[in-house]
Amino acid sequence: MELDEYILRHIDAEGELLHALWRDTQLRLAYGQMASGHLQGRLLKMLVQMTKPLRVLELGTFSGYSALCMAEGLRPEAELHTIEVFDEMEDFIRSWFARSPHASQLHLHIGNALDIVPTLPGGWDLVFIDADKRQYVDYYHMIVPLMKPGGFILADNTLWYGHVLEEHPREARLIVNKVVLAAQARQAAYNARQRIQRKSPLCGGGLPGKLSDCSSRTAEDCEIFIVEGDSAGGTAQDARDRRYQAILPLRGKILNVEKAMEHKVFENEEIANLFRALRVTIGTEEDPHEPNVSKLAYHKIIIMTDADVDGAHIATLLMTFFFRRMRPVIENGYLYLATPPLYKCKLGKLEEYCWTDQQLQ
Length: 361
What we know:
The chain is an alpha/beta fold. The chain contains 15 helices and 13 strands.
């Protein structure tokens, strides 16, 4: 209780709408003590503000107190769907939602969550489970496939005097193991991001050894060719204009960032070299996890791989990397894909390049 009292003394006071809802809940509803209170409400709002979700799902609306608290932390373009199983609660909930300045972002569904959730579009950024404790395991198995990568699941009162975890020990171990693994992955990812920061040329770490940089330091004039291996790098170096064209050879296929865990991405040497060569760091004023391209060294980044299956695979992996880890590069129009010829045909002194088998024939 001392901790609760300390927290309550150091957080914002309860707003008029929420205070009135809390009083009305205690007066009119059975089991009013089940409603989220001021302390949990502030925690939920803080978590929403920290994670910046676009799509939020709540299982178990009850009075609507927790939904209103989360709505306070939503961005204007975000939405919150909340599901209440008891239809007799609908008028009560809607009356309070209508008084909220965030009413347009709140969507109430009445019925069993296990029936309703599959009918809603997936891609949840944040899910708050506060419904029937006996069905928590079912909710978990239903929700996980519908989450966006990197999404968050919050579960209220999972112990419930031991009824949930003790009656389902196998599922309990699975959930706990996933929590531990996620925590370890977050810490490992943080450590890996820090290593990239320390190795950044902006922090004295130097540029990748295989980078053949250009002499110009004006990003708008500079371009870098990301090529497939040292042999291609040598050929490209011979043909480049050293004033404004740089060459970065990669060693084979880079990591598939779509499948790899975050810490594995930042621990990969080739990916670290890409960050260092492009002078991109991790962390902006708005988001410590976003790529910072303010010091980007080249405004034309050209993926140039062989015109075969392996080359297409490498190009796809690189485009996936930029889409997932350096999206501002794509959004600003800095990423290009070269289309090298498949064949070089020579007849005497006549030379011609062919891009397809049909041209060759």
